[in-house]
Amino acid sequence: MNILPVVKARAYIPAILMSFIFLLCEQGLAAAESRWALLVGIDQYQREDITPLKGAVADVRAVASALEHYCGFSADKLFMLTSDDPANRPDLGNILVKLEFIASQAKPGDVFLFYFSGHGVSQGEKSYLLPWGADRRNAMLLERTSIPVDMLRDYLAKVSADKIVVVLDACRNNPEAGRGDTDNPLGGEFARGIVRIMPTAGEARSSRFSSVIFSCGIGQRAYEWPGRGRGFFSLAFEEAVSGKAAGEDGAVNLNRLESYLDRRVPEMVAQVLGPEKVQVPWVDRSGAGAGEFLWSIFEVRPSGVDKVPHPGLQPVKPGELPVLPMVPFEPVKVDSNPPEVRFTTTPKSELNLLEAKRVEFRFAGTDDVGLAGYKYRLDANAEVETKRSFIILENLPSGVHTLQVQASDAQGNYSLPAMYSFTVLGNRPPEVKIESPAEGSRVRYVKVSVSLSGSDVDGQVTTWRCGLDSPDRMTEQGGPVFVFEDLVDGPHTVFAQVVDDVGTVSEINKAQFYFIYEELNSIVPGLRMVVIPGGSFMMGSNSGPDDEKPVHRVTVSSFEMSAMEITQVQWRAFMGNNPWWYHNKGDDLPVENVSWDDAIEFCRKLNELTGQRFDLPTEAEWEYACRAGTSTNYYSGDSESDLDRVGWYYRNSGKTTHPVGQKQANAFGLYDMHGNVWEWCSDLYGRYGGGELAWKGVGIGFDRVLRGGGWANDANYCRSASRNDPLSGSHPVGVRLVRR
Length: 740
Fold this sequence. Notes:
By secondary structure, this protein is α+β, with helices and mostly antiparallel strands. It is about 20% helix and about 25% strand. It folds into 4 domains: about 1-295, Rossmann fold; about 320-425, Sandwich (Immunoglobulin-like); about 430-520, Immunoglobulins (Immunoglobulin-like); about 530-740, Alpha-Beta Complex (paralog of FGE (formylglycine-generating enzyme)). The chain contains 13 helices and 41 strands. It is elongated and about 100 Å long.
């Protein structure tokens, strides 16, 4: 097995492309190979004592797009875990589950790319990657919540792919809280730990190539370009992929790449940050021979990619778009029947910068003696000859462009040129919206959670800024949710702004709310939330009904869940009614006979009052929380006597509900997960999707899902895996909340 680890400084798109090119050298791509990728990007860590990063998520997304569009990675084999996506958060369990899945699917001859952008640390002789939920408070917690590089080696050893690329961006700012503005230089122990991921010659099935490319030397830091959300190493790699590291033959080898990076990275760093800042990439060549890695950098891209200048990063105001100069083609007529050419596919007449990153043209020529080929010219650039009937232009700058195409025949005739003009609009600023708290709302809770949303028509939002009562107090981070504490009673104003991937800032938006300090227990009497740590489990049951099959592994991120079902007194406090069932009435009894819409309205009112994010659990969250690490029918065991200890069902309920919290809790501290009343989930009811890796909590059916069973049901309905829908009969249905 060839394992190529690459520790780099945010050289996301080009670093992967170049490493990928090297691995596929000499023999090219096997027609039947599959290409797998797992990409991890972490801007905001779960624990506040780990410094946030900037741009890791945005760059991982850019890498995913590049792999899919240019390197032949298909969407169903490309997995992305980012800290801003609650459904695909890069916690330890999620990363390991994805690695296990890829190991079970990848075959000899395949390619696998593991890409990690986050913090890396060393402790003693061990090196670690820090996933989203890492805990560095002591050595034991670090070992249990992080990814030691030897663990990564063990997981990679399970992957049958012949070519494995490991890209690690873990030498930027200091992960220790309060020191995020200080250097985190590449340490010798960390570097040696990364190098040890590679197998020895005896372990590898093939040892034709192995190399480690570090974005900086030992003792150096990998720097970012201020305001651009990019690393210098990343930008240099992008230039290399654009052809600046290629020789006259259009090929890149390790020597050429190393030579270009060694010159270009320190050159850019010195120009922007000053000569006192030093960053020189370092290449470890364990068994690498430069002659083995010749590869045309354009072969991995769609054929016919034209090299054009990179778009300017400054906004271009309307009316200031330049009309780029054009050098016209002239027809050449040797005989009386010259060829003809016409466009068959063209882009729309106006493109934004995002659309202009990849623009495709197709054309067709005709001739009585047969076509010899085509030539094309964009604006005043040099003409390019090609045998293909399509071209792809990349990263077009703002302005009015003209593309000309001519067809030629074997006798030397050139057709009249086909011409197409189009406009690439200037960079437009992103926009920000304050989702919560709503304008004019009254917030009553110890903490205030501010949720933002952002959009950018010609790029993507990479940085979020938010502050209270003054725009000068805004802080920035990589995610859209901000939490504020220790507010004084009275009116407050939220100020929000976002920054896009080229450093353009939005206008500042603002919203006013009124804050009243109040403990959650005084708002919802007796409501107690329990932290459910993230992790993975096997969801479903092979011994139950068909809708519980297939059993499949699911990973969930950390969340909070109410320790008990919502009671009637808690429901009345918000909804003003009590939809109790027959004679089951009492303040400490679970509310029942609740519709899904009413349950959602209860959450909405609670969110509006507290400024928090309460919701119904997804099915995956519910079953994961119920099992609490068990795989038995009930969290207490497999038998009915085990159920009797933890839940109310038809044999022990006396045909009525019972006050919450009387039976034994599970390992997470949750009561009445089995029996008493059914509980709503947010999902639509439907069959599990044929062995999917994860159940996303969206469903494909006709109504919402019920879980847990009730006092009138037999034991089978109260199992952890049991699922039901409200149309299958009458159910005593209640509510249990989660908070995210």
